[in-house]
């Protein structure tokens, strides 16, 4: 959990995500911004620097894939093309900026430039405060997306293609391990016990005596 900007941003639950969109975020722009980060796993800077043409075609229709330009990525490694999830599409269809003088999807004040990443972070933190979500930041959207994909069994190499991490080690630092997964991993070790040992334990005199005394 992240406290006073220290530690890792928390991974959001499905219930927390729902409360954010229904009660925490107040404008269509803010909902669309968070939806883009959540449903693409992109960084906040990558979201605010999206161009309208990266998301909509010339007829104003949402593209099947959105483009995160190389120059706006953290290390400027490569341009990423990410499919537009059907959960994201309604947000993009309802939100179409009309006052963006420089073609940014999320324009800055008076329509010039783009929304500043720090201001986007403030929007998210205020939304979390409204619905009493503690320890979250805009990075929570990215960590949540990548963790959910990992838990769904998506290979790390595929997730890396979406996240834009330069190596798998960096990607793994983002992923959250749940206590239930740890318990499941330990439970799997029962397979190490030979079948004969298990059956002998069941038929041992001690186990029979225990059974009789219980009766």
Give a brief rundown of this model:
51% of the residues lie in helices and 4% in strands. The chain is mainly alpha-helical and 215 residues long. Strands 1-2 form a two-stranded antiparallel sheet.
Relevant terms:
hpI Integrase, Chain A; mainly alpha; two-stranded antiparallel ribbon; 2 domains; single chain; globular; 215 residues
CATH superfamily of the largest domain, by name, is: Intergrase catalytic core
Described by strand count, sense and barrel closure, the largest sheet is: 2 strands, antiparallel
Instruction: Count every beta strand, where a strand is a DSSP E run of 2 or more residues.
Output: 2
CA radius of gyration:
23 Å
Write the CATH fold name of the largest domain: hpI Integrase, Chain A
Percentage of residues in helical conformation? 40-55%
Level-2 CATH architecture of the largest domain: Orthogonal Bundle
CATH top level of the largest domain is Mainly Alpha
**What are the low-pLDDT stretches, counting only 5+ consecutive residues below 50?**
210-215
Listing every helix as H and every strand as E from the N terminus to the C terminus, the arrangement reads HHHHEEHHHHHHHH
Dominant shape: globular
Number of helices: 12
What number of structural domains do the residues give?
2
Distance between the termini: 50 Å
Neighbour order of strands in the largest sheet: 1-2
Q: What proportion of the residues form beta strands (DSSP E)?
A: under 5%
* Structure class: mainly alpha
Mean pLDDT: 82
